[in-house]
User: Fold this.
Amino acid sequence: MHSELLSYPVSIQQNITWSDMDAYQHVNNAVYFRYFEDVRMSYFEKIGVNAYMSEHNIGPILASTTANYKAPLTYPDKLTIAARISTIHNKKLTMDYIVYSHSLDKIATIGSGLVVYFDYNQHHSCQIPEPIIKQIKLIEHKA
Assistant:
C-alpha cells in the first residue's frame, strides 16, 4: 500500500464493478466522482455531519470538484479511496481525495472538492458549525 495514504484519516475499500467501465475499456471518468462522493460521505458520517444536518438543517453542499487521473483503472480491481480536509475557512473547506489501485499498486487518481456550508432553512451559505470543526480537527489530528 502506498505510504501517501497514511496522511488521509478516512478510507474505504471498494471493488471496481463491470458497470464502472466504459467503451474504452477503463473506468469511466464520471465514476471517479462517485468514488469521491462515497469516501466524502464516510468522512461526514465519522465527524457527525449527517446527524447535525438532521437536527439543524445546516450542512455541506459541494461547490466544485476536480480529478487528476494518473493511471487508468480496469475491472477487476480493488481500490482504497481516501479523504482528508486540507483547509478550513469560515464557510467552506477543501477535501482532498486519493484513489489507490491494489492491482496496479499505485495511486490512480487524486482529486479535491470545495465544500460550502449551507443553511437549508435560510437558503444561503453559513459558518461551519463549531462542533463540526472540532470533529475535523480531532480526526485530522490538528487539535
